[in-house]
Amino acid sequence: MSSMQLRTLTFAVSMVVAGAGVAQEAGGRTRFILAASWQPAFCQTNQKKAECASQTGERPDATNFSLHGLWPMRQDYCGVSAEQKAADKDGDWNKLPEVTLAAETKTALAKAMPGTQSGLERHEWVKHGTCTKMSADDYFGVGMHLVGALNASAVRDLFAANIGKPVKAEAIKAAFDKSFGPGAGDRVKMSCRRAGNVRMISELTIGLSEAAGTASAKSAGLADLIQGAGKTSFGCDEGVVDAAGF
Fold first, then answer.
1. What pTM, to 2 d.p., does this model score?
2. 1 assigned to some structural domain
């Protein structure tokens, strides 16, 4: 191979590598997941949980998404003792340490995360929150801010307008694109669960960029965080938007 050919080949390889880097940067990488539950569907198969036994059609979680959690990718139980980890995996969340929160945060969290009635916030903090550099107040503050943005969007409007009816993946993805920009729906996964012979939408897990892991995300736009994440498959293709009650 001549020196001219070698230089040409080297240049071509460098351009391919550079192009791949640009493509990866443009696509972004998912560093966090916002998990938003449709609580009535969750409660169909968890009727004995405190937050399900107490659910009413007038409570916010009957017509809004509830905060399940904010999860760092590929990290959990950071600096957690073996005893706490075992208790968490056993589902005995009331044996976990109480999460110290400001009174204002605690009140807001009880509304945004009905699962606090079963100690869900203890589980979320031990398994996921400990792997962020945020305080508990900031960690839950970010999660509440982001689920609030979801509830102020066309996605929540679509769900609220179709309670008791089936909704297709295409409609949900279109609602994400409408509220959070083109391609936002490609960064969402939907989970469904069966109750009897009905397949219900139980949760949306939304990919977010690394910026979701800082306290400043309490004032960040959800659209920017979604657009900075990588794409994923949507999962469940259709499900019923369940109504509160059994």
1. 0.88
2. no
